Amino acid sequence: MGLICNRIERHEIKPGDHLYTYRAVFTYSHHGIFVGGSKVVHFRPDRNFKSITETSSNFNDPPPTPCPTFPDCGFRQPNSGVVLSCLDCFLRNGSLYRFEYGVSPTLFLTRIRGGTCTTALPDPPETVIHRAMYLLQNGFGNYDVFQNNCEDFAMYCKTGLLIVEKQGVGRSGQASSAIGAPLAAMLSSPLKLLMPSPVGIATVTAGMYCVSRYATDIGVRSDVIKVGVEDLAVNLGWNCSDAEEEEVVQDENSTSLITI
User: Fold this and answer.
1) Which pLDDT score, from 0 to 100, does residue 145 have?
2) Which end of the chain is more exposed for a tag (fewer CB within 10 A), N or C?
3) Do 30 and 63 contact (CB within 8 A), yes or no?
4) Would the CA dihedral through 168, 225, 120, 35 be positive or negative?
5) pTM check: above 0.85
6) What PANTHER family does the record point to (predicted)?
7) Which residue in the list 18, 30, 73, 117 is annotated as catalytic?
8) Could you confirm whether 30 is annotated as catalytic?
9) 130: annotated active-site residue
10) Class assignment of domain 10-227?
């Protein structure tokens, strides 16, 4: 575990690792699960994703280019944002980093930038890979920059944890950082009248920012539950409308039979 950063070399990667790389000159990071064979399963907006966040947010991954090496690179199911890519296409010439799990609260707070580590403990590699491959075939719901992005996908694969409350920030550390920084600045602004020193204001703002980031970490939150990947669609309500339609059709058929 790096004390300053989580950068690693390719020979250090192990199946089940949560990898990430930075895009757009370190503006944001893109995350995925290494499943072996130089392949990474990751989550991005599907081809039908049309949202203001697609053009205005830095958390989105740009459209991929065809891979000249692996024929199955870029595989995804229709209308799904979960993609299988080779490591080269995932990195896009960026550096390689490994997300850290089970870190101490002290180390977590020293990482000023979110999206690099969590206090939550990971599951065994075989479980992580199973979740990633299952979601590759079945999808991970709708992409959402702040509640269901690539980091949320990778963290679920590693921990199996979901947030009960659908409102607010998801598991993503970089999303909580994006929200926490301006929030901390706003909350600390009234203190300018009491603390004229710029250093004092900066210290208070940094402290509020760190506290808000730690409070949203899935390792300390009380609103998270362990959900099996096979039950994920039911828990997130992805198939609710389809299930309700099927139930209505069955009821109508039953009624027709009785009437006849």
Assistant:
1) 85
2) C
3) no
4) negative
5) no
6) OS05G0310600 PROTEIN, OS09G0526800 PROTEIN
7) 30
8) yes
9) no
10) alpha beta
